[in-house]
Amino acid sequence: MPALFTYNHTFLLESGRSLPRFHLTYTTLGTLNANGNNVVWVFHALTANSDPSEWWFGLVGSDKLFDPERYFIVCVNMPGSCYGSLGPLDDDPETGAPYYHDFPLFTTRDMIRAYQHLRTYLGIQKIYIGIGGSMGGQQLLEWAIEEPDLFEFIFPIATNAKHSPWGIAFNATQRFCIENDPTWKEKNSLAGLEGMKIARAMALISYRHYTTYLDHQTGVSEDTKSDPVDWQVFRAETYQRYQGEKLAKRFNAFSYYFLSKAMDYHDVSRSRKTAEEVLKSIKAKTLVIGIRSDILFPIEEQAFLAKHIPGAEFLIIDSALGHDGFLLEFDKIGQAINAFQSKTVPAITLNNLLV
Q1: Are residues 67 and 207 located together in one domain of the fold?
Q2: Domain range for 311
């Protein structure tokens, strides 16, 4: 079950805005061992929650790569989300009413600075493995830069050092959909929901690939096959509509809006040196993983990370699933991580994790 951590002290955001307190919902699986050397910190992507055994079930769970019998697995729900951490539908301490449109922007750097307080609370001195894809990988990189001695291994997947103009354009256009929903300016939890459905349908095109749709969404919907051709509805069309409706059942437009902005602001070089110089500060053993068909975070972005993180290796996974391959190609990702660790870690160290 998710747990709640509350930080009852002033917390300063990159924007200069300060909060009197914040709270985070987090999930832990397994037990911290006596040596404290079995921590796996998983960072979730845009609309996921704090339980990776639900959305990364191929990697996290009994007899999986990250087995709670072996590891102490931690995952935090991002601030701004709607799965328990501080979000737009929570009350603003200054007004006593929900934040809604006035929710403060948490950058990926703000997020990991919030997690640092949770880490202290949990008594974690060292993180053996940090892993995350997409926006989760962005957070991982920020933390590995902020605290270079914290991680033994990091596995950034389908992510980047700075969100690209291409990625920002996708996110901004999705926010336009929400902003043009007539209900968006209303102060209630359902505001902008129809716009978010369209935004999600648009996002899915960037998450997948031409081949994904060709392989799985060719033809017409089963419900319309008997109709005259003029009235047939294509499977690709019903699939887009379904994806929007599906997200609307579990998410809200405010969280979607602010989390997409947080992704846009991701830039490891902001208020630091160049991205090349900043990445050189990472000390963790690093395997960067890219998905060859990813059009949202193209492999050139992961190649850049691997080039500038000292000693990093780069692996490209062949997949027709596009950006979503980081969630679905868990067998290939697991094999890659095992192979990388077997080259880097003496067997005795791995055995010590079982202590």
Answers
A1: no
A2: 3-163+268-352
Q: Are residues 198 and 319 in the same domain?
A: no
Which residue shows structure tokens 């992961």? 302
Ligand-binding annotation for 324, yes or no, is yes
**Residue 272 known to bind ligand:** no
Residues designated as active site: 134, 294, 323
Is 161 within 8 Å of 269 (Cβ atoms)? yes
How many domains does the chain divide into? 2
- CA 62-76-108 angle, to 5 degrees, is 130
| Residue 307 CA, distance from chain mean position | 23
- Tokens 């059942």, residue located: 249
Q: Same domain for 245 and 172?
A: yes
The residue type of 56 is: W
Residues 43, 110 within the same domain: yes
Q: Are residues 187 and 240 in the same domain?
A: yes
CATH of the domain at 189: 1.10.1740.110
CA-closest candidate to residue 294, choices 162, 145, 167, 114: 167
From CA 331, how far away is CA 352, in angstroms rounded?
A: 25
DSSP SS3 for 21: coil
Q: What is the CATH number of the domain that holds 296?
A: 3.40.50.1820
State how beta strands 22-29 and 72-76 pair.
antiparallel
User: Whose CA is closest to 133, among 47, 4, 261?
Assistant: 47
355 residues of the chain, pLDDT tens digit each:
899 999 999 999 999 999 999 999 999 999 999 988 999 999 999 999 999 999 999 999 999 999 999 999 999 999 999 999 999 999 999 999 999 999 999 999 999 999 999 999 999 999 999 999 999 999 999 999 999 999 999 999 999 999 999 999 999 999 999 999 999 999 999 999 999 999 999 999 999 998 888 888 887 776 655 555 556 688 899 999 999 999 999 999 999 999 999 999 999 999 999 999 999 999 999 999 999 999 999 999 999 999 999 999 999 999 999 999 999 999 999 999 999 999 865 432 333 332 2
